[in-house]
């Protein structure tokens, strides 16, 4: 690792963040769709769905799933920005300079974490305006933030693979569609017990359900049980596998 790794990564992250702030529609776009879904499910479907959840305030039940949808949407822009950098030749220019090579990738990763963090803060603000309330302790809030951070980091490395491997801009972003769809087949909107057998089995054995259940329990001040370990296992497992394949793809690209 270069002794200039931290400084190089900070400089390149600043470059990426300036691109985002000059085009703030990136953050707004990734926030608008999840917020629109939250408005739709709370004010149109909420009356019917709330009965199946057994909660008094449906937005409290819904918000964790909306946050995960926002992250799945946001990381598509990471693949988009990385693909554009490759196509524009900026990668070759960076590699001809005396900078740490890995800092190029880490700059995109840190940019993704910051951009998605801003988006989640916007959605939290709208959720509070819509009536979201929680008596969660500071420790529970730290748990929620930690899980969202880990989930974002894991999906970001998946986006890095897509950005490095895609042949077109559509291919670079299309990988996120299944990820955006996963919360709809989970406990994010209704309990899995209300689903038909095969769908229920899939919902209960895919990563989103354990993450949603853990965040819901933390916000509701209820015991998280074994779900938090299942959620952490999924996030760490995806992160490790995605990181390894991303580094392999990166070395092939720059060799």
Put the structure in a nutshell:
This protein has 255 residues and is mainly alpha-helical.
Radius of gyration: 19 Å
Major sheet characteristics: none
Number of contiguous helices: 12
Low-confidence stretches: none
Beta-strand residue fraction: under 5%
Q: What series of H and E elements makes up the topology?
A: HHHHHHHHHHHH
Separation of the first and last Cα atoms: 17 Å
Mean pLDDT: 88
Shape: elongated
Proportion of residues in helical segments:
over 70%
Would you count the extended β strands for me? Answer: 0
User: Structural class from helices and strands?
Assistant: mainly alpha
Describe the SSE topology:
Blueprint: H1 5-22, H2 25-43, H3 46-53, H4 58-88, H5 90-95, H6 102-129, H7 138-165, H8 169-174, H9 176-181, H10 197-204, H11 207-219, H12 227-254
Helix pairs in contact: 1-6, 2-4, 2-6, 4-6, 4-7, 4-11, 6-7, 7-11, 7-12, 11-12
Question: Could you characterize the architecture of this molecule?
Answer:
The chain is mostly helical. It is built from 12 helices and no strands. α2 packs parallel to α6 (102-129), α4 runs parallel beside α7 and α7 runs antiparallel to α11. The model has no long low-confidence stretch (mean pLDDT 88).
Features:
mainly alpha, 0% strand, 12 helices, elongated, 255 residues
């Amino acid at each position: 690792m270069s002794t200039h790794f931290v400084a190089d990564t900070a400089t390149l992250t600043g470059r990426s963040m300036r691109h985002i702030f000059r085009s703030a529609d990136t953050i707004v776009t990734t926030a608008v769709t999840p917020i629109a879904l939250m408005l739709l499910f709370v004010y149109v479907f909420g009356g019917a769905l709330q009965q199946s959840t057994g909660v008094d305030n449906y937005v409290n039940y819904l918000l964790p799933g909306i946050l995960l949808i926002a992250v799945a949407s946001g990381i598509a822009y990471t693949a988009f920005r990385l693909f554009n950098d490759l196509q524009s030749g900026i990668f070759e220019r960076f590699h001809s300079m005396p900078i740490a090579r890995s800092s190029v990738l880490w700059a995109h990763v840190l940019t993704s974490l910051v951009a998605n963090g801003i988006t989640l803060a916007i959605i939290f603000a709208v959720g509070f305006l819509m009536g979201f309330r929680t008596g969660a302790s500071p420790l529970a809030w730290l748990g929620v933030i930690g899980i969202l951070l880990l989930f974002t980091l894991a999906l970001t490395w998946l986006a890095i693979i897509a950005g490095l491997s895609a042949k077109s801009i559509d291919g670079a972003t299309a990988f996120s569609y299944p990820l955006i769809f996963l919360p709809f087949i989970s406990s994010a909107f209704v309990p899995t017990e209300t689903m038909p057998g095969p769908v229920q089995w899939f919902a209960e054995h895919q990563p989103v359900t354990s993450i949603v259940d853990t965040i819901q329990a933390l916000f509701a001040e209820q015991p998280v049980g074994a779900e938090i370990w299942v959620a952490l296992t999924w996030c760490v497992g995806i992160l490790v596998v995605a990181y390894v394949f991303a580094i392999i793809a990166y070395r092939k690209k720059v060799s």
